[in-house]
């Protein structure tokens, strides 16, 4: 059963932009994630953890949750699986005995060092339909939207 489309121009505009944003993200994910799985045996979440640790260094799980915008329970499962695969280790945190630091293992570092450059090249290709200025503007708009949504 069809429902009435909102007539309010602001609502229609916001819904249209939201649908386009979701479709674009879903389309990009559909092109990127299968390659991560096929080539490296990684899910999007696992790749995100490895990439964050590779670029930012060891950190508590709570900080990883903030960086990746995922729930603690979801990230626990992801880290458990990465730890089982020997890609990360949990260790004591000298700054907070209540929290453990998550760090890359040598095997995890080798994997993300292989996976990241090819992933970055695929992202560059996929976003290549936008000019450099459009990519910069998209980044600024997404950041603005994300920050405003946190309030």
Overview features:
151 residues; mainly alpha; three-stranded antiparallel sheet; 3 strands; globular
Structural class: mainly alpha
Give the termini separation.
35 Å
Number of strands: 3
Q: Which whole number gives the mean pLDDT?
A: 92
Major sheet details? 3 strands, antiparallel
Order of helices and strands: HHEHHEEHH
The number of helical segments is: 6
Name the strands of the widest sheet in spatial order: 1-3-2
Our Rg estimate from Cα atoms comes to 19 Å
Please state the oligomeric state of the protein chains shown.
single chain
* Low-confidence residue ranges: none
Helix content: 55-70%
Estimate what percentage of residues fall within beta strands.
Answer: 5-15%
What is the 3D form? globular
Compact description:
The protein is mainly alpha-helical. 70% of the residues lie in helices and 8% in strands.
């Amino acid at each position: 059963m069809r429902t009435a489309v909102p007539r309010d121009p602001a609502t229609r505009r916001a819904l249209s932009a939201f649908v386009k944003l979701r479709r674009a993200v879903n389309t990009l994910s559909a092109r990127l994630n299968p390659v991560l799985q096929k080539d490296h045996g990684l899910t999007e979440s696992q790749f995100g953890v490895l990439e964050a640790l590779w670029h930012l260094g060891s950190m508590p799980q709570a900080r990883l949750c903030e960086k990746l915008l995922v729930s603690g329970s979801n990230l626990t499962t992801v880290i458990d699986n990465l730890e089982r695969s020997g890609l990360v280790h949990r260790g004591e945190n000298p700054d907070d005995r209540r929290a453990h630091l998550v760090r890359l293992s040598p095997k995890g570092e080798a994997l993300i060092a292989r996976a990241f450059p090819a992933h970055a090249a695929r992202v560059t290709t996929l976003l290549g339909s936008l000019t450099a200025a459009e990519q910069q503007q998209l980044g600024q708009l997404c950041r603005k939207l994300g920050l405003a949504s946190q309030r």
